[in-house]
Amino acid sequence: MIRMTKDQENLLAYTRKKVKVLFRDYPIPAHGFSHSERVRKWAEEVAAGEKQNIFLCSLAATLHDIGRTREMTGFGSRHHELSYEMMREWYKKDSAFDILTKQEKIIVLYAIRYHWNNAANKYPEAIILRDADKLDSLGKIGVKRTQEFYSNEAGKIEQDFRLKYDMLYWLETKTAWEIVWKKKIMLPVDRYYLALLKKEILPIEL
Ligand SMILES: [Fe+2]
Ligand SMILES: [Fe+2]
Fold first, then answer.
1. Do residues 55 and 2 lie in contact, with contact meaning Cβ atoms separated by under 8 Å?
2. Does pTM top 0.90 for this prediction?
3. Which class does domain 6-199 fall in?
4. How many angstroms separate the alpha carbon of residue 196 from the centre of ligand 2?
């Protein structure tokens, strides 16, 4: 495991504040700062379990959804592409990120850009970010986020629950799988999904 230096800790704290301010100005249901903080914590836990770079995983997790703020303001495009573009701008404009090496910058950009793509496995940080992001779509909190995001539109909620099982299938790290089983985070998902389906079963009439 690679421990964080003081400079890295400071950059992380600075970035979290920057992202918090961004989401305060552009609030996004179910994908705001609280989501980025939970994903960061999951990413740190998974990175520690996998003996990977906690700092880079934590940084990428904090930043992964910043593009959501532009998606909602009419920029179009998919939010991961927007997060990637925003991060490139931040590297250019904000000298706080100058402490990162070129390679570290590239890894963070790759992880952000492909946090939706289950085949993008070039760096362990990308895999860990995806697992962390998925973990926040499961459990009680994942159920709540779906309801919040789709404001109780039954059809969309059902589709989103199907996606949760896809996410479960594509969890890559041993640590994320251990979290799923130890914390039983599929239980609330199963319960809600089955209740949703059962509501659609009506008596057959001849
Ligand atoms: Fe995202
Ligand atoms: Fe996310």
1. yes
2. yes
3. mainly alpha
4. 24
